[in-house]
Amino acid sequence: MANGGGMGKLMKQLQKAQTRMAQLQEELAQKTVEFSSGGGAVRVKVNGKKELLSLDIDPEMLNEDNCEILEDAILVALNEAFRQIDELVNSEISKLTGGMNLPPMGF
Fold first, then answer.
1. Which of 4, 37, 87, 96 maximizes the CB count within 10 A of its CB?
2. Residues β-bridged to residue 4
3. Can you tell me the distance from the alpha carbon of 87 to that of 26, in angstroms, rounded to the nearest whole number?
4. What is the pLDDT of residues 43-100, one digit of tens each?
5. How far apart are the first and last CA of the chain?
6. Residue 89: how many CB atoms within 10 A of its CB?
7. Which of 54, 52, 57 minimizes the C-alpha distance to 71?
8. What one-character-per-residue DSSP string does 8-58 give?
9. What pLDDT is stored for residue 106 in this prediction?
């Protein structure tokens, strides 16, 4: 019977962690990251769900001569913003789990 009390305590801890994880997911969804590339020619804003919220392009970049440069600048800005969101999510999850090395949570 002594193990039954330990199991109950463990279940309560798991429920608490699950509740906190749901709260964390909601908090992270509200966070945003902004990044610019191409010397500021392209600016992106991404939320914690990895949704693109805004894309600003310097009008001077909008000509055929700059097409390839513009495409590259957009890719760099988006990829860096997504990388920063991943770092933010991993940092927050690490705080929640006390640094335990758990697999990605699929935010």
1. 37
2. none
3. 16
4. 999 999 999 999 999 999 888 888 999 999 999 999 999 999 999 988 888 887 776 6
5. 39
6. 20
7. 57
8. HHHHHHHHHHHHHHHHHHHHHHH-EEEEEETTTTEEEEEETT--EEEEEE-
9. 52
